[in-house]
Design brief:
GO molecular function: carbohydrate derivative binding; glutamine-fructose-6-phosphate transaminase (isomerizing) activity
Oligomer: single chain
Largest sheet: 5 strands, parallel
Catalytic activity: D-fructose 6-phosphate + L-glutamine = D-glucosamine 6-phosphate + L-glutamate
CATH topology of the largest domain: Rossmann fold
CATH class of the largest domain: Alpha Beta
InterPro entries: SIS_dom (IPR001347), SIS_dom_sf (IPR046348)
Protein name: Glutamine--fructose-6-phosphate aminotransferase [isomerizing]
Order of helices and strands: HHHEHEHEHEHEHHHEHEHEHEEH
Enzyme class: transferase
Number of domains: 2
Helix content: 40-55%
């Protein structure tokens, strides 16, 4: 087992307890943040890499709370900021991502801005009032623990905005549902390409984050695609040996991925389905049943399970899985 996989497993082993403590500690600052966001009315969620995908996962729930909220990667936002200084939540697990440092140095931070990070002594935490996650810096190259902690920090703010997060807190207290699927592991281990698919809100953010994690850990081509986008073109790319990984949540029939899964099966392509729907399994698919969840709680239920599959399969694909060849944990800015 590579050093990279050992580091990933160490992070994952404590992510639920660290996320729960981060949630509890964030509750002290969350009402102040929520009040400031509510007063401003408009919100941008800014991050890079996995931080951006977690922002995407939570963005619609800020809209549900009555805010005009959008999520952007920092490098794009610096080039084309929104007018009239919307409030900002700036996310960086290290607090020192190059683009975040440039955003601050250029004076492009809104007068109403807060940070979400794991590092108390980071430039982000020193520049902005920030929620600090529990457990210190994340050591593994691919993000796992930091993503669940960031979700928990957002959950504390959303609770202060009036959202019910009791299901989320229960998931963190109980811990992950244990599952084992040698068939799913083998399919992902041997696939030349993977597509991570979900439909909307938290589910899509989770699968986008998972796609990045798989790229970083197994060094394979991976697409994170919303279900509709997958059917509009990329459906032509996949082959019977492709890994098609779906996240199926509870909700209205119109959002169920069963029809898309059956279509894949009709062309000889067997999807792996992380199933939180509470519905019956899709005949012929590889199903990993999870506890029934929808909304933001779906992210907390499914993300650790998807991470587990990724890390297990990656460890079998590569002798040095999880160890970067050209990158570092904290990426420098690409912005000139």
């Amino acid at each position: 087992m590579s050093t990279g996989i050992i580091q990933l497993r160490a992070e994952m082993a404590r992510q639920h307890s660290d996320a729960l403590q981060s949630l509890e500690e964030a509750r002290a600052q969350a009402p102040e943040i929520a009040q400031a966001l509510r007063k401003r009315g408009r919100l941008v969620l800014l991050g890079m890499g996995g931080s951006h995908w977690i922002n995407r996962a939570v963005c619609s729930y800020y809209r549900d709370a009555g805010l005009d909220a959008t999520a952007h990667v920092v490098s794009e936002y610096m080039r084309s900021p929104l007018p009239n200084d919307p409030a900002m939540l700036v996310t960086s697990q290290s607090g020192r991502s190059g683009e975040v440092l440039r955003l601050i140095a250029r004076g492009q931070v809104s007068p109403v801005a807060f940070g979400l990070t794991l590092e108390e002594d980071s430039p982000l935490a020193k520049a902005l009032p920030s929620l600090i996650g529990t457990g210190g810096p994340e050591l593994a190259y691919a993000a796992t623990r930091s993503q669940l902690i960031t979700l928990a920090q957002h959950a504390a703010i959303l609770e202060a905005l009036g959202q019910d997060i009791s299901d989320i807190e229960a998931i963190l207290r109980v811990g992950p549902k244990q599952h084992s699927s040698p068939e799913a592991v083998e399919r992902l281990e041997r696939a030349p390409v993977a597509v991570m698919i979900a439909r909307g809100q938290a589910a899509q953010g989770v699968m986008d984050a998972a796609a990045l994690c798989l790229m970083e850990t197994a060094r394979m081509p991976v697409f994170g695609l919303e279900a509709g986008q997958f059917r509009h073109g990329p459906f032509e790319m996949i082959e019977p040996d492709s890994a098609i990984v779906m996240l199926r949540g509870a909700g209205p029939n119109s959002d169920d991925l069963a029809t898309l899964a059956l279509e894949c099966l009709s062309y000889g392509m067997c999807p792996i389905i992380f199933d939180c729907s509470g519905r019956g399994p899709v005949d012929g698919a590889i199903t990993l049943p999870l506890r029934t969840q929808s909304g933001l709680a779906l992210a907390f239920e499914s993300l650790p399970a998807v991470q587990e599959l990724i890390v297990t399969a990656s460890s079998l694909r590569l002798p040095d899985a999880g160890l970067p060849r050209r990158s570092t944990k904290v990426a420098s800015a690409e912005v000139a």
